[in-house]
Design the sequence.
């Protein structure tokens, strides 16, 4: 009976964490110095939350895309065994990279739009609608490429998302109804939706061991 | 569920990727099964059994006992 598992590649994990930390630091610095003043005039906390989630998606998408364009580096940065493993997953990862980047940029644009925003509201709404349609189309096309584990994780991620959203939105709505907090902020709600989708995916992937070093 | 997949795979001299290719699933699926993080579907369990020439209970160990 096999109870012994392969020794995790901690060197690779350190590289991944290091690259992630650098990207995170750059992202945080950029958000706080360049966009914070603009976000405050546009929509306050909701806009800031949306911009943060949008940047997370965009950075993730660009990170995966970078790994695909430069497979030698990608095999070290992404959670794959080697270049062959990366090549096997190329189609799925390409779809993920494109959708994450498009959705991230659209959320960023939306966070910076509005009556006092720096980006046209129509342009931002169009970008988000396009990103959502693209995500649906790519998801439908990729469903055929998924094996049973990936399909299970995809459905589990949706279940986790619902489990996060239902109590969070309900509590927010109850508190707003009782006058204990402000009304549901549109940009904050979109940030919550997009954030819970990301969190649900991480939880589902982690549960199946996909976040452990390959 | 506990299983002997890693032993059987290594005895056959296959990598996780090689076994994944033979079964038409991803390497992550093989890894998740071997590390007890995922129980495969019945069709995949049957395919594994056919590939290694053993019965399903020889790969997957279920310690459940019926109540007497």
Sequence:
């Amino acid at each position: 009976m096999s109870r012994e598992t392969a020794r995790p590649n901690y060197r690779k994990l350190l590289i991944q964490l290091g690259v992630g930390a650098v990207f995170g630091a750059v992202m945080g610095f950029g958000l706080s110095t360049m966009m914070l003043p603009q976000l405050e005039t546009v929509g306050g906390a909701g806009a800031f939350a949306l911009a943060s989630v949008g940047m997370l998606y965009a950075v993730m998408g660009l990170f995966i895309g970078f790994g695909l364009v430069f497979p030698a580096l990608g095999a070290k940065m992404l959670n794959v065994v080697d270049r062959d493993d990366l090549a096997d997953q190329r189609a799925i990862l390409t779809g993920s990279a494109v959708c994450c980047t498009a959705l991230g940029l659209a959320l960023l644009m939306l966070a910076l739009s509005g009556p006092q925003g720096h980006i046209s509201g129509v342009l931002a709404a169009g970008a988000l609608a396009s990103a959502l349609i693209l995500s649906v189309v790519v998801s439908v096309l990729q469903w055929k490429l998924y094996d049973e584990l990936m399909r299970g994780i995809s459905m589990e991620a949706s279940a986790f998302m619902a489990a996060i959203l239902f109590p969070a939105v309900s509590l927010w709505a109850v508190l707003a109804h009782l006058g204990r907090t402000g009304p549901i902020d549109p940009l904050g709600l979109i940030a919550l939706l997009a954030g819970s989708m990301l969190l649900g995916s991480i939880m589902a992937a982690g549960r199946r061991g996909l976040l452990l070093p390959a | 569920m506990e299983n002997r997949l890693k032993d059987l795979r290594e005895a056959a001299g296959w990598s996780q990727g090689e076994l994944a290719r033979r079964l038409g699933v991803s390497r992550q699926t093989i890894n998740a099964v071997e590390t007890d993080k995922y129980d495969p579907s019945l069709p995949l369990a049957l395919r594994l059994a056919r590939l290694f020439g053993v019965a399903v209970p020889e790969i997957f160990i279920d310690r459940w006992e019926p109540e007497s």
